[in-house]
Amino acid sequence: MKRRARDLALAMTLGLCACNWIFPLSDLRPDSLKEGPISAAAAAEGKSVLAKAAVAHGGEVWSEHQTWEVVLEDRWSDRPLIERRSPWPDGSKWLKFQFAPGSGDGRVEFLDGPEEGAIWGLAGGRTYSLDPGQEVIWDEAPAMASRLPTMQFLIEFPQRITEAPFIGHVGQEEIDGHATEVVFASWGSVAPHPDYDQFLIYVDVETDHLVAMEYTVRKSGRTLLGHRLWRDLKDVDGALVPFFQTSLLSFDGDEPVHSFFVRELGFDTVAPILLSAPGEG
Question: Is the pTM higher than 0.85?
Answer without folding.
Answer: yes
